[in-house]
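agent> fetching stored inputs for the flavin mononucleotide docking request
agent> found them:
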Amino acid sequence: MTIGSRVVVGISGASGAMLGIRILELLTAAGCETHLVVSTSAERTIAHEIGPDALHQARMVATHCHAIENVGATIASGSFRTAGMVVAPCSMRTLSAIASSAADNLLVRAADVHLKERRRLVLLTRETPLHLGHIRMMALATEMGAIIAPPVPAYYRRPQTVMDIIDHTARRAIDLLNLDLHALAEPWDGLR
Ligand SMILES: Cc1cc2nc3c(=O)[nH]c(=O)nc-3n(C[C@H](O)[C@H](O)[C@H](O)COP(=O)(O)O)c2cc1C
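agent> prediction call returned; pasting tokens
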């Protein structure tokens, strides 16, 4: 296992918990070392949106799991090198905490570390509609180097199921990490 394939996956309490779980599945299947951290609110959204066993199953998929309150975990330190981090979905609360370096839990601390170490941080921010405060937080995070990638369906791909949308969004998010993997999302080859 190389640092180049070590990825942190954060799941926060916005709607769309399945996005984080699908990203985790794809990364682990691609041979990456995955470090999962789930916020307390996300534990509730995962149970509500997917089912009572879903969190346990997600934890079985990750190669490493960290408790949200464990700010002493490996991923809380810049000396623990990684290829990047994705937060999927990213709530407005977690976005705001990241944008203001309010690192009071491990997910936000790990994201803060990725920014300070100038590593890839991809945030699948999920809320609608947005007020100016949300937009300002996205601008702040972008200015600090994060990539804001809201999970907006690619309708032009003609998805047939919700899972098609989740899978494509997850693959695009992984592509944004710029890992040394084969492109996971099929590139668009233009309208015929
Ligand atoms: C079913 C459900 C769906 C939610 N969806 C969103 C959402 O899409 N975006 C958001 O910012 N917050 C959403 N929330 C609210 C967050 O869970 C709440 O703000 C929480 O404090 C976020 O904490 P975290 O950032 O530590 O995960 C939702 C809550 C529930 C129970």
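agent> quick read of the result: The domain at 6-78+90-175 is CATH 3.40.50.1950 (Rossmann fold).
agent> awaiting further instructions
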